[in-house]
Amino acid sequence: MEKLTYRDTRNYAPIDVTKGMDLLTREIVMADAEAPEGYEPIPKCKLCTNFTGTDTFMGTCEASMNEPKFIAYPDMVATTCEMYQAM
Ligand code: SF4
After folding, report:
1. Measured in angstroms, how far is the CA atom of residue 68 from the centroid of ligand 1?
2. Structural domains of the chain sorted by starting position, each given as residue range(s) with its CATH number in brackets
3. Measuring from atom 4 of ligand 1, which residue has the nearest CA?
4. pTM of the full predicted structure?
5. One-character DSSP codes across 45-85
6. Mean pLDDT, the chain, as a whole number?
Protein backbone atom coordinates (compact mmCIF):
# COMPACT_ATOMS: atom_id res chain seq x y z
CA MET A 1 0.00 0.00 0.00
CA GLU A 2 1.11 3.54 -0.73
CA LYS A 3 2.11 5.82 2.11
CA LEU A 4 -0.93 7.32 3.80
CA THR A 5 -1.52 11.01 4.23
CA TYR A 6 -3.02 12.26 7.46
CA ARG A 7 -6.39 12.80 5.78
CA ASP A 8 -6.53 9.07 4.99
CA THR A 9 -6.15 7.95 8.60
CA ARG A 10 -8.38 7.58 11.64
CA ASN A 11 -5.73 9.35 13.68
CA TYR A 12 -6.53 12.76 12.20
CA ALA A 13 -9.24 15.33 12.92
CA PRO A 14 -9.64 18.06 10.29
CA ILE A 15 -9.73 21.71 11.34
CA ASP A 16 -10.19 23.02 7.80
CA VAL A 17 -9.50 21.78 4.28
CA THR A 18 -5.71 22.06 4.60
CA LYS A 19 -4.86 21.20 8.19
CA GLY A 20 -5.98 19.30 11.23
CA MET A 21 -4.83 17.65 14.43
CA ASP A 22 -2.80 14.48 14.79
CA LEU A 23 -4.91 12.74 17.45
CA LEU A 24 -1.95 10.82 18.83
CA THR A 25 0.57 13.67 19.19
CA ARG A 26 -1.96 16.57 19.49
CA GLU A 27 0.11 18.52 16.93
CA ILE A 28 -1.35 20.58 14.12
CA VAL A 29 -0.41 18.89 10.82
CA MET A 30 -1.06 19.42 7.14
CA ALA A 31 -3.80 17.15 5.75
CA ASP A 32 -1.65 16.05 2.80
CA ALA A 33 1.50 15.39 4.83
CA GLU A 34 2.64 11.80 5.06
CA ALA A 35 1.28 10.08 8.17
CA PRO A 36 3.71 8.21 10.42
CA GLU A 37 4.13 4.47 10.00
CA GLY A 38 1.40 2.44 11.71
CA TYR A 39 -1.40 5.01 11.57
CA GLU A 40 -4.72 3.29 10.88
CA PRO A 41 -6.24 3.90 7.43
CA ILE A 42 -9.83 5.13 7.34
CA PRO A 43 -12.01 3.22 4.85
CA LYS A 44 -12.19 5.19 1.59
CA CYS A 45 -13.07 4.09 -1.92
CA LYS A 46 -9.48 4.57 -3.10
CA LEU A 47 -8.34 2.10 -0.42
CA CYS A 48 -10.91 -0.54 -1.48
CA THR A 49 -10.16 -3.44 -3.83
CA ASN A 50 -13.51 -2.81 -5.58
CA PHE A 51 -12.40 0.65 -6.72
CA THR A 52 -10.96 1.32 -10.14
CA GLY A 53 -9.75 4.82 -10.82
CA THR A 54 -10.26 6.49 -14.12
CA ASP A 55 -8.51 9.68 -13.08
CA THR A 56 -7.47 11.50 -9.93
CA PHE A 57 -10.94 12.69 -9.02
CA MET A 58 -13.29 9.95 -10.17
CA GLY A 59 -13.51 6.21 -10.47
CA THR A 60 -15.88 3.26 -10.59
CA CYS A 61 -17.19 0.89 -7.92
CA GLU A 62 -16.75 -2.59 -9.41
CA ALA A 63 -19.02 -4.04 -6.70
CA SER A 64 -21.96 -2.07 -8.05
CA MET A 65 -24.86 -4.20 -9.30
CA ASN A 66 -26.03 -1.39 -11.60
CA GLU A 67 -25.25 -1.15 -15.28
CA PRO A 68 -23.34 1.01 -15.89
CA LYS A 69 -21.58 0.65 -12.56
CA PHE A 70 -21.87 3.68 -10.34
CA ILE A 71 -19.28 6.39 -9.95
CA ALA A 72 -17.09 6.36 -6.87
CA TYR A 73 -14.89 9.19 -5.70
CA PRO A 74 -11.43 8.22 -4.45
CA ASP A 75 -11.71 10.31 -1.28
CA MET A 76 -15.25 9.20 -0.45
CA VAL A 77 -15.30 7.90 3.14
CA ALA A 78 -16.67 4.36 3.13
CA THR A 79 -17.22 3.61 6.82
CA THR A 80 -20.84 2.62 6.10
CA CYS A 81 -20.21 0.69 2.86
CA GLU A 82 -20.97 -3.00 3.43
CA MET A 83 -18.99 -3.96 0.30
CA TYR A 84 -15.77 -2.26 1.36
CA GLN A 85 -12.75 -4.54 0.98
CA ALA A 86 -9.53 -3.16 2.42
CA MET A 87 -6.45 -3.49 0.22
S1 SF4 B 1 -17.39 -1.21 -2.50
FE2 SF4 B 1 -17.89 0.65 -1.31
S3 SF4 B 1 -15.90 1.41 -0.63
FE4 SF4 B 1 -15.51 -0.02 -2.30
S5 SF4 B 1 -15.40 1.25 -4.16
FE6 SF4 B 1 -17.51 0.51 -3.94
S7 SF4 B 1 -18.60 2.16 -2.84
FE8 SF4 B 1 -16.37 2.48 -2.55
Report:
1. 15
2. 1-41 (2.20.70.100), 43-87 (2.20.70.100)
3. 84
4. 0.86
5. GGGBTTEEESSSS-EEETT--SSSPPEE-TT-B-TT-TT--
6. 94
